[in-house]
Known about the structure:
single chain
Amino acid sequence: MTxxxxxxxxxxxxxxxxxxxxxxxxxxxxxTLETHPRLPYVPAVREDVAVGLAAGAWLAGRRxxxxxxxxxxxxxxxxxxxxxxxxRLPALLLVTCRGHGGTDAPEHLLMGEISPRLLxxxxxxxxxxxxxxxADDIAWGRSESERLSQPVALLLPPGVLETGTxxxxxxxxxxxxxxxxxxxxxxxxxxxxxxxxxxxxxxxAEGEPSEYGNRGRLxxxxxxxxxxxxxxxxxxxxxxxxxxxxxxPVVHANGxxxxxxxxxKDRMENFYMIGSMxxxxxxxxxxxxxxxxxxxxxxDGDGNLLMSLGILPMIGGGPVMGRGxxxxxxxxxxxxxxxxxxxxxxxxxxxxxLHHVARAxxxxxxxAVAAADELRATVATALAGGGPSFxxxxxxxxxxxxxxxxxxxxxxxxxxxxxxxxxxxxxKTLP
Length: 431
């Protein structure tokens, strides 16, 4: 079967959001998705990031599919267990079976042998695709995933899909030569991002004074671009950021960011992460892409972001093949340079300005702040659009006693998802 024919079957079942990590066995399918006018494909840096993207897309009203090689089951295990299964988030997983039948390169043999048992162990139903039953298997995957409200997997052995080169599968010269992707001066050739040697090599010290004089601005002259000294607690910073919000969906990183934000103000629009450290930014990106008409906010932590640093070029470079960056995404990182929930161990962010990394990765606007009124004004400016925006909130290590989130995972899911029901154009074309 061709990749185009397989994509048509998926579209017929209502799948409208695709993300994953490539495998040669699905090259023809990915080539089709990369140039498809209706089916957006988001190349992910890791399989667990793709699981997070799919979660956010589903929460905002899409029907997502995740593509991965079976080696990616290991990479995505925690995200599947403590995100997709715990919150009960439907998704269809297409998992290629490298090592199937014991014939493949050595690195694939063991995973090929244990892939079905691994899915059984984490209680994800699966079928092994065959050329004769592809349409029925895809239909089963959709209905079973929705019936159980959880991921379901289709294992793809060799011989079901054509595996030719991308050119043979789709003639995708339009992708490589498309100015919106490879030649886009706003991303690849933007001197303010790629050519700023002072950003990559400067290494600003942690205690350098802030020279942000115009509060609320999201970009400043390079000479004024310093990592400010923390002056307020994370709780105070969260209170300032929340004060700038109205009805925006906010995806929270797990740990004390969730708990302190809940103590500041519990909102229906808050998605509280309980597990899956590092996945908040991926979930938020999925929400932002699925609901492009409204701002989406991520409340992240330095430790969380460092666990998934590859999300930055995904956001800044334009996540969907052939389309623009998510101008509605506001990424706020509360950086205390500590792993607070586990005993205040030092974080690698202590000597790095993460806003420099975000700017170099292609965010439209990136800045660092350390005062409450400055943070509130900067978040308010970012919510007006023109992003993606990255706001580094430097905070002290002080923690506010805060209760655990009182809602069970499925209630958190339903509260958050209800904010997207009845909104205009829930399946609008992604940016």
